[in-house]
Automatic annotation (TrEMBL), chain A:
Organism: Kwoniella shandongensis
Location in chain, cross-link Glycyl lysine isopeptide (Gly-Lys) (interchain with K-? in acceptor proteins): G144
Ranges in a coiled coil: none
Intracellular or extracellular location(s): Cytoplasm
HAMAP family assigned: Urm1 (MF_03048)
Name of the featured protein: Ubiquitin-related modifier 1
Chief localization: cytoplasm
Keyword Nucleotide-binding: no
UniProtKB/TrEMBL annotation, chain B:
Compartment list: Cytoplasm, Cytosol
Predominant cellular place of this UniProt entry's protein: cytoplasm
SUPFAM superfamilies: Activating enzymes of the ubiquitin-like proteins (SSF69572)
Recorded coiled-coil stretches: none
Keyword Transferase: yes
One GO BP: protein urmylation
Region spans: Disordered: 1-29
Keyword list, A-Z: ATP-binding, Nucleotide-binding, Nucleotidyltransferase, Transferase, tRNA processing, Ubl conjugation pathway
Residue ranges occupied by any Rhodanese domain in the UniProt entry: 343-435
GO molecular function: ATP binding; nucleotidyltransferase activity; thiosulfate-cyanide sulfurtransferase activity; URM1 activating enzyme activity
Protein name per its UniProtKB record: Rhodanese domain-containing protein
Organism annotation: Kwoniella shandongensis
């Protein structure tokens, strides 16, 4: 049962980034942005910090595709954070829903960032997602 | 503190004199100098920086900063504030230095193991900079005493390690209308920010810690402690250094014009992610228009608000366990001796710790199956008429034993027990040479 890893960083870090980012230093140099989405879909980058990755199959980073528009009462509407949170609960969450969700939104104590800003600065659930948006979910840490 | 106040009034009087007099002549007189001669040398490298200068140094000298917690975050904070010449620094910590602190709590020394951390840090700071006034408070910060202890200070620095003190310090910063520099670190991750108080350039209030983190998330990876989850010294070091930087920026009026939260992970790219925080929350119970928290902090139930993890008892684990469900380390030792003498193979000793910890030390003859694997499928555990679980201190082993008991039938006639006090007890009662980490 004992596994000894020679990678000191990946074997002992308990809060995400278990291998992907440490093992791929080439990602330090970002390739030029290529068009990633078709006309009908957008690409969204999700990241989990402060231990929240444990709710999502212990993966700190996910890249997902969502439809650009969702049809509500026969009218196409831009996809919003409300749709994303719902989609995550249905498709990505690996633990019980109440550990992440609260109504349409997320539990108090989870901070949601849209492109490096608190989502409350961006319209919260009504924020309309754009291609290659980066959405980060973090919880607070207490160690010192 | 009095000494600094006297010096303050002396130096501002001296500055007035300079303004009205022949400058050269005034500078020749020692009473005209806001700093001692050696301080010009000591702080020279930072004073010559544009935008800092003598006025910046005098701001630091006159400042009174309270640092709560002299551990992994507190040590770098204190070290840089003292080095930079912050005139009065309070250090609040009730805890004593332990050997397992020293990989990250770099102000303490091997000689000072068992000394109070506030006292130990005080010795280190005085050696570093005898020109500053360091006030050790070797006591715990509590809702009933915190406000009066911290009232004399103009900036609070939260270097504590649990939710209760974090929310308490935030509430005090709101009550005193002073900024709170709050940081945290665990494992490979850390975060820090300035909460509360007013932004000098805009006059706007910052969100308080409660505005951003209105409730404690139980069972999230972030709220463990360093003893359980481990922590890199460089992570607390980087976060603490960032926090000291925020304190210095606040003191010299170079604070961020919009409140920022910094998130660090040792393996992330970028190494530090900086995000814009929202303004104060109208719903905040500490700083909102309908706030319910008052100066009487004792009436706010911090304990129940923060209740998340179980309280651990080193001797027994958090739960005492039912009749016959637990055994003491000495009994395990006897069982192991008996089993090695006989050839019977109907006994299994399972160590439930993470494999990385099992690799550090283990009881001879034990098999490592980490708790999450056991809980996932207890029926797949090796079958034996006698199963004993052991862990670091006798908590996880109870969960494992409980899980196995649920899947074995009465008719199987198997016995499932766990070791009270775990490996700590094994060290204490059986093998004093067994490593404790």
């Amino acid at each position: 049962m004992t596994t000894v890893s020679d990678d000191i960083v990946t074997s002992s870090n308990g809060l995400g980034y278990t291998s992907a980012s440490a093992a791929h230093p080439e990602s330090l140099v970002k390739p030029p942005a290529a068009p990633t989405a078709g006309e009908d879909t957008i690409e969204i980058h999700l990241e989990f910090g402060g231990g929240l990755h444990l709710l999502f199959s212990s993966q700190p980073r996910h890249t997902i595709r969502l439809p650009r528009f969702v049809t509500e009462s026969n009218t196409p509407q831009p996809t919003t954070m409300r749709h994303l949170v719902k989609w995550m609960k249905e498709n990505l969450l690996s633990e019980r829903e109440e550990m992440f969700g609260d109504g349409d939104g997320v539990r108090p104590g989870i901070l949601v960032l849209v492109n490096d800003a608190d989502w409350e600065l961006e319209g919260e659930l009504e924020y309309e997602l754009r291609d290659r948006d980066e959405i980060v979910f973090i919880s607070t840490l207490h160690g010192g | 503190m009095n000494r600094v106040e006297v010096e303050m009034s002396k130096s501002s009087a001296a500055t007035d004199k300079i303004m009205g007099q022949d400058t050269l002549q005034a500078e020749a007189s020692s009473s005209a100098r806001p700093l001692e001669l050696d301080e010009y040398v000591r702080y020279g490298r930072q004073m010559i920086m544009p935008g800092f200068g003598l006025p910046g140094q005098v701001e630091l000298k006159n400042a009174k900063v309270a640092v709560v917690g002299a551990g992994g975050l507190g040590c770098p904070v204190l070290q840089y504030l003292a080095g930079a010449g912050v005139g009065t620094i309070a250090i609040v910590d009730h805890d004593t230095v332990s050997l397992s602190n020293l990989h990250r709590q770099i102000l303490h020394t091997t000689d000072r193991v068992d000394m109070n951390k506030a006292e130990s840090a005080c010795i280190a700071l005085k050696a570093l900079n005898p020109r500053i006034n360091v006030v050790p408070h070797p006591m715990a910060i509590t809702p009933s005493t915190a406000l009066s202890t911290l009232a004399p200070y103009s900036i609070l620095v939260d270097c504590t390690d649990r939710p209760l003190t974090r929310y308490l310090l935030s509430d005090i910063s709101v009550r005193l209308s002073i900024p709170l520099v709050s940081g945290a670190a665990i494992s490979s991750a850390g975060q820090w920010a300035v909460y509360g108080g007013t932004i000098r350039s805009s006059g706007k209030r910052r969100a308080c810690y409660r505005c951003i983190w209105p409730s404690v998330l139980p069972n999230s990876g972030g709220n463990g402690n360093c003893e359980e989850q481990g922590v890199w010294g460089v992570v607390t070091g980087l976060v603490g250094t960032g926090m000291a930087g925020e304190v210095i920026k606040l003191l010299v009026g170079k604070e961020d014009s919009e409140p920022l939260l910094h998130l660090h992970h040792l393996c992330s790219n970028p190494l530090i992610r900086t995000i814009r925080m929202k303004p104060p929350s109208a719903k905040c119970i500490a700083c909102g228009p309908n706030a319910t928290i008052t100066d009487d902090l004792d009436v706010f139930g911090y304990e129940s608000f923060c209740a998340g993890g179980p309280v651990t008892n080193d001797q027994t684990g958090s739960v005492t366990g039912g009749e016959g469900e637990r055994l003491i380390a000495k009994d395990l030792s006897e069982i192991l001796d008996l089993k090695s003498a006989s050839s019977e193979d109907d006994f299994v000793l399972i160590d439930t710790r993470p494999s990385i910890e099992f690799g550090i030390c283990s009881v001879p003859g034990s098999t490592n199956i980490p708790l999450p694997e056991i809980l996932k499928d207890p029926s797949s555990l090796p079958r034996a008429t006698e199963t004993i679980f052991i862990c670091r201190r006798g908590n996880d082993s109870q969960f494992a034993a409980e899980a196995l008991r649920r899947v074995v039938a009465e008719a199987d006639k198997v016995r499932v027990r766990d070791v009270r006090g775990g490996l700590l007890a094994w060290n204490r009662e059986v093998d004093h040479d067994f490593p404790i980490y």
